Amino acid sequence: xxxxxxxxxxxxxAILDPELACPAGPVADLLLTAPFDDSKALxxxxxxxxxxxxxxxxxxxxxxxxxxxxxxxxxxxSVLQICQHRERExxxxxxxxxxxxxxxxxxxxxxxxxxxxxxxxQCRLKSSAFGYDGKGQLALEPGADAGKAWxxxxxxxxxxxxxxxxxxxxxxxxxxxxQGRSLAFPPFENRHHGGVLERTVFPARLxxxxxxxxxxxxRQIAEKLGVVGLLGVEMFELADGxxxxxxxxxxxxxxxHLTVEACHTSQFEQQIRAVCGLxxxxxxxxxxxxxxNLLGDLWDKGEPDWLPVLGLPGGVxxxxxxxxxxxxxxMGHLTVRASTPEEAIRLGHxxxxxxxxxxxxxxxxx
Length: 366
Ligand SMILES: Nc1ncnc2c1ncn2[C@@H]1O[C@H](COP(=O)(O)OP(=O)(O)O)[C@@H](O)[C@H]1O
Ligand SMILES: [Mg+2]
Hints:
CATH architecture of the largest domain: 2-Layer Sandwich
Bound molecules: adenosine-5'-diphosphate, magnesium ion
CATH topology of the largest domain: D-amino Acid Aminotransferase, Chain A, domain 1
Distance between the termini: 29 Å
Number of domains: 3
Order of helices and strands: HEEHHHHEHEEHEEEEEHEEHHEHEEH
Number of helices: 12
Structural class: alpha+beta
CATH superfamily of the largest domain: ATP-grasp fold, B domain
Shape: globular
Radius of gyration: 21 Å
């Protein structure tokens, strides 16, 4: 989606991806198939490019640093180094005074045992590295056995985090340029299922003070990190209207996919503008919308029958061209535009629930 947008803007694209069948391959002018730590491929990528950015967090920062000696890499590798590692990310948030859930760094069963005494309620053990879509996380019930949990987790470092009884999950995507100017999209409202984003609703149904608090936080975090490009900030809204920051993503974000249809400028274009030194595009909302991720589970009985989805008024189907549908794998998404967020949700559910039924999946919760 980023590459397609860049092409539309007149740029030529070079891609480095370990997978030969990567979705950006067919739109790339130069496709390098190599591991992210292949220094020869990294050099070729740099030599072919004027600007380098990334849309995936599990890239070794040493690779980005190598490229950065040859060409500008934006956001700076130091930003990814913080955001790709939960321990550094949470420590950065806490030490900068941004509100986030309580956590402890865990490197052994003994650490976990003592942290569990501090968090006597439900909590979560989250791997410091390589977590995404709820992977690398373990929900721990009160009285959990530290030794068992630590060997089950089987990871070298983690954080133990309090369970947050949020009323809503939201995200803010803020773009920041090299001059320090920033511009945020209005907040998105997110619902996860099993750790994976299930749907995003736009605009988020927030009170003005909560929305303003979320926007201010995202801008301050982007400033503190010195991001040039897009920063996605995932947050929890508490019952009393306070916000806690959950996660940072220095890239385009799944919750921003619906900006393609619902905002004057998409998140993809905004990212390209920010890293290429162009002025920001307007973030004005065009219409309420809802976005539903289409996971591989939906392919359980073969390719879903898209006909009713294609006929949905206001619906836009995106398929990423991934050849293998694995459970939990993001294969595409459906965006539905409507006159209200509620109507967008209703239409999306009406279109997707029959496909879910055919794949023996329960209907989407209202
Ligand atoms: N401390 C927490 N309390 C309650 N729910 C949580 C907590 N941490 C994560 N979650 C839930 O799990 C989802 C995924 O966790 P997250 O930390 O964002 O990791 P990732 O998205 O990298 O897998 C969150 O969006 C949220 O729904
Ligand atoms: Mg997350």
